[in-house]
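Good morning,

Attaching, inline, the backbone tokens for the sequence recovery test we're adding to the shared suite. The designed sequence is right after.
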């Protein structure tokens, strides 16, 4: 009985951790001094690989269930994250910050802040987006079935359209 309970808890914790990732675990500092572009892009690439793997399993009928994939969440703790090059998010993703306390600051006015490409679901919640040309740029060939949700975000100092 105890072994079964331990196996359940380890599995539950492991599966729960697979769905949400913290940018600081990939090396982001959020200190307002360090360029966090590479660390955040590393986290996005990790999520993209998971999405491709999940889609592969579903398309091959691996899970014998529905056709929808989950949306992994990328969490940004309170802080200022300096970005120098457009963050590329491929596939469905959720960005989660701390309302009024998480800032994504683009240091290059000629670059977009976030570009989400080929997605079905894109969520962003709890950020101050500062600088850059376009702050959120999304594109999908699934327009008849895609979802974009922006909540509790503030847009500042974009040199083009904010969204």
């Amino acid at each position: 009985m105890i072994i079964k309970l331990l196996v359940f808890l380890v599995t539950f914790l492991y599966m729960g951790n697979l769905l949400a990732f913290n940018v600081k675990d990939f090396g982001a500092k959020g200190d307002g001094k360090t360029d966090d572009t590479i660390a955040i892009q590393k986290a996005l690439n990790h999520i993209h690989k998971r999405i491709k793997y999940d889609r592969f399993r579903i398309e091959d009928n691996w899970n014998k269930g529905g056709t929808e994939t989950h949306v992994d969440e990328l969490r940004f703790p309170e802080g200022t994250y300096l970005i120098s090059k457009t963050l590329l998010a491929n596939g469905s993703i959720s960005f989660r910050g701390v309302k009024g306390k998480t800032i994504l600051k683009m240091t290059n006015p000629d670059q977009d802040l976030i570009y989400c490409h080929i997605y079905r679901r894109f969520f962003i919640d709890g950020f101050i987006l500062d600088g850059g040309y376009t702050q959120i740029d999304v594109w999908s060939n699934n327009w008849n079935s895609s979802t974009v949700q922006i909540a509790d975000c503030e847009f500042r100092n974009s040199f083009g359209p904010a969204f």
